[in-house]
């Protein structure tokens, strides 16, 4: 299995998304950061400190930052949805965040997280078809 950031807990509340997990298949030494990359514009990135002890990591991101970085006019052109992929990085390697070691496949249809709304944009974590964790930003009415 490829090295990745194995997600153990996702806590979307109080204007933040808190992530807890383990670094799998890569040395957990050095300084790590949580990295968000806008899927439709890979050059647009946000990053936040990650605390690492042993192979365990913990980090959080404010949903207001993601909502502000998601241009509402452009999101409306692209069917009202923008997606941000989540990685853990030490500056040299980017480990995709996901949950693969639990024998539950198809999390996209099973695990649903609550949406938090900021400035008319709903932000919620979700699992992709490959069981990676991403953020969905949706304009318009709450889903």
Describe, in plain words, how this protein is organized in 3D.
The chain is mostly beta strands and 143 residues long. The chain is 12% helix and 51% strand.
Strand content: over 45%
The total count of helices amounts to 3
Average per-residue pLDDT, rounded, comes to 91
The N- and C-terminal alpha carbons lie at a distance of: 34 Å
The largest pleated sheet is described as: 7 strands, mixed, barrel
Proportion of helical residues: 10-25%
Radius of gyration: 15 Å
Strands in their spatial order, largest beta sheet? 1-2-5-4-3-6-7
Secondary-structure element pattern, one letter each: EEEEEHHEEHEEE
Class derived from helix and strand content: mainly beta
Basic shape: globular
The poorly predicted ranges are: none
Number of E strands = 10
Keywords:
143 residues; mainly beta; 7-stranded mixed beta barrel; 3 helices; 10 strands; globular
Summarize the structure.
The protein is 12% helix and 51% strand.
């Amino acid at each position: 299995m490829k090295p990745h950031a194995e997600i153990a807990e996702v806590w979307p509340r109080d204007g933040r998304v808190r992530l807890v997990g383990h670094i799998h298949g890569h040395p957990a030494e050095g300084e790590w950061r949580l990295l968000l990359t806008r899927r439709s514009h890979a050059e647009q990135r946000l990053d936040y400190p990650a605390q690492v002890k042993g192979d365990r990591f913990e980090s959080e991101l404010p949903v207001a930052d993601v909502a502000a970085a998601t241009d509402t006019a452009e999101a409306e052109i692209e069917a009202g949805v923008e997606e941000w992929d989540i990685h853990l990085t030490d500056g040299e390697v980017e480990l995709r965040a996901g949950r693969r070691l639990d024998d539950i496949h198809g999390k996209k249809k099973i695990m649903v997280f609550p949406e938090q709304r900021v400035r008319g944009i709903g932000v919620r974590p979700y699992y992709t078809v490959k069981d990676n964790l991403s953020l969905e930003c949706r304009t318009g009415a709450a889903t």
